């Protein structure tokens, strides 16, 4: 079984103290990006995973490649951009759980994936395509995504999607791109704000399995007539970065083993997979970064 993850690879600088970002002085450097976190998480469940992304020809790009190697995730489909920089972000969380994030390089290499190079990752058979919503911010990325979705449909592969960004604040063209992608999605992961922003559209997605993550309040899984509440585990939290990515990859790891019998899914199965996803997320929040908990 093989998955392809499409999206950003970057370096996160995560504040070591629970303070607003403007007050933070000490940071932990971590490999990051939703696509990276999901790819490493899927690989941890035993699914062969290919990450498709693009980094700059710079020191941060070198660090991304080095960290991917350390995570034993193939870099065969990581493109190198000689003009645009590698994306990096600065993240902090205060004692009340509020998240602060600043993207340093918005016009970054990951926004300019070469579609021809991307298609090389899709030539070998695959069973799952994961798409990070960051790909939809620019029209170029949207076109790349649609090419990947078409390849997935031709192979009968499932499509998983996570908006990743605050849709409510996005420009109208970006909102339309998200709406277009939703028509092709089999598994949607959305946090509270994303779920609310998409609420009017979600009622029409009768065949989409929806993972509504709610942080410390757990998660809700919705599929057809099913609605399953999943409780969060009470553990000491070092850093919640990537918890949603871990929930998604943990769920998909279980779900993909039953690919082809979607119509037969029962409440007990969804609850079991949701609890496995929660265990996965619990591993991540006890370490800094969105994927260090797997190592």
Give the helices and strands, then pairings.
Layout: E1 2-6, E2 10-15, E3 27-32, H1 34-44, E4 48-56, H2 59-70, E5 78-81, E6 88-93, E7 99-103, H3 115-120, E8 128-132, H4 139-155, E9 158-162, H5 172-182, E10 187-190, H6 192-202, E11 209-213, E12 219-223, E13 226-230, H7 243-255, H8 267-285
Parallel strand pairs: 1-4, 1-8, 2-6, 4-5, 8-9, 9-10, 10-11
Antiparallel strand pairs: 2-3, 6-7, 11-12, 12-13
Strand content: 15-25%
| Unreliable parts | none
Output the CATH homologous superfamily: Ribokinase
Helix-strand makeup class? alpha/beta
Instruction: Calculate the mean pLDDT score and round it.
Output: 93
Q: Output the strand order for the largest sheet.
A: 5-4-1-8-9-10-11-12-13
Q: What is the third-level CATH name, the topology?
A: UDP-N-acetylmuramoyl-L-alanine:D-glutamate ligase
Oligomeric nature of the chains: single chain
CATH class type: Alpha Beta
Number of domains: 1
User: What is the count of β-strands?
Assistant: 13
Shape verdict = globular
Order of helices and strands: EEEHEHEEEHEHEHEHEEEHH
| Biggest sheet features | 9 strands, mixed
How far apart the termini lie comes to 22 Å
Query: How many individual helices?
Result: 8
Binned, the helix content reads 25-40%
